[in-house]
Design a protein that fits this description.
Helix content: 10-25%
Bound molecules: zinc ion
Number of helices: 6
CATH topology of the largest domain: lpxc deacetylase, domain 1
Radius of gyration: 18 Å
Distance between the termini: 21 Å
Mean pLDDT: 89
CATH superfamily of the largest domain: lpxc deacetylase, domain 2
CATH architecture of the largest domain: 2-Layer Sandwich
Length: about 325
């Protein structure tokens, strides 16, 4: 991992200064839900910009990657501002957030982020090509000081005080190839790249017709999603035996990016999804007694913080 990825060699998420990318990078592909073709270009942005989408097909109209712009959350997270839509933002945002990219313009010429291979790995590769550039302004973390929990039936999600950024996910699907899977990970560039980035989105054949009827997954293929039949995986092999929960953790991180600042907290998701993730973020930001803002210079653990302490269930066969 060293050498060719020199610009990304430090764990930027734990550095006290803001980062942008080193140079513009591009990718193109179809959207999972709309099947529209789009071109994506990441462009360096100055300190204090945040992560901002720019619709180049609409005179560069800006939509900030912030929970206040969340429009619709069912099978993907969509942003909308003044009627301008941006769909399926979560995989790209997960890559940017985990790699510690505070400021970047995401230029896109259509309404949905390309799904590429269904994971965040192509976006990680874009960031490796772009490199990271440190800016002069200090990074401000959102540090959770009181817990918050949100639930909907047996689905729930909670956020708790922690000195670092940890994500814990649990899924339970009545399917012989999935079942119950759980993962807890300390999120940084290294752990994300190694444990979560390549985990692909997935879908069940039994949902296929219903989703199509709702105008969803029109760009879905066996190349950009794991597809599950009644009792098997149609397009195996999987990249991890527990690729499903790893992808859920990836989605969660992408939705937490909508906080707009790096996070110091532990987030525990139990059978949650985009709707609960974004509800949690909305309620967290609405109640300033739940968190404080802190710069890294006051945080001793930012000096010599361990690079990785991921707790991952051992793969069944590896
Ligand atoms: Zn996803």
């Amino acid at each position: 991992m060293a050498g060719s990825q020199k610009c990304l060699a430090t764990s930027a998420l734990n550095m006290p200064f803001q980062f942008t990318i080193g140079r513009p990078v591009e990718a193109a592909g179809v959207g999972l839900h709309t099947a529209v073709q789009s071109k994506l270009r990441l462009v360096p942005a100055p300190a204090g910009t945040g992560i901002v989408f720019r619709r180049t097909d609409l005179d560069g109209f800006c939509v900030e990657a912030h929970v206040r712009n969340v429009a619709r959350v069912s099978y993907a997270t969509s942003l909308m501002k003044q009627g301008v839509l941006l769909s399926t933002t979560e995989h790209l945002l997960a890559a940017l957030y985990s790699c510690g990219v505070d400021n970047v313009f995401i230029e896109i010429d259509n309404l949905e982020v390309p799904i590429l291979d269904g994971s965040a790995q192509p976006f990680i590769e874009m960031l490796q090509r772009a490199g990271l550039r440190r800016l002069r302004r200090r990074r401000t973390y959102l540090k959770v000081v009181r817990p918050l929990e949100v639930s909907d039936g047996d689905r729930r999600i909670g956020i708790y005080p922690h000195e670092d950024f940890l994500v814990s996910c649990f899924v339970d699907y009545a399917h012989p190839k999935v079942g119950r899977q759980e993962i807890e990970i300390r999120v940084n560039r290294d752990s994300f790249g190694r444990e979560l980035a390549t985990a692909r989105t997935f879908g069940f054949m039994s949902d296929f017709e219903g989703l199509r009827a709702m105008g969803l997954i029109r760009g879905g293929t066996l190349e950009n999603a794991i597809v599950l039949s009644a009792d098997d995986i149609l397009n195996g092999p999987v990249r991890f035996p527990d690729e499903f929960v790893r992808h859920k953790a990836l989605d969660l991180i992408g939705d937490l990016a909508l906080i707009g600042r790096p996070l110091k907290a532990r987030v525990v998701a139990h059978k949650a999804g985009h709707a609960l993730h974004t509800q949690l973020v909305t309620r967290l930001l609405a109640d300033p007694t739940l968190w404080t803002e802190t710069t890294a210079e006051t945080e001793r653990e930012d000096v010599g913080v361990p690079v990785l302490r991921a707790v991952v269930p051992a793969p069944a066969a590896d």
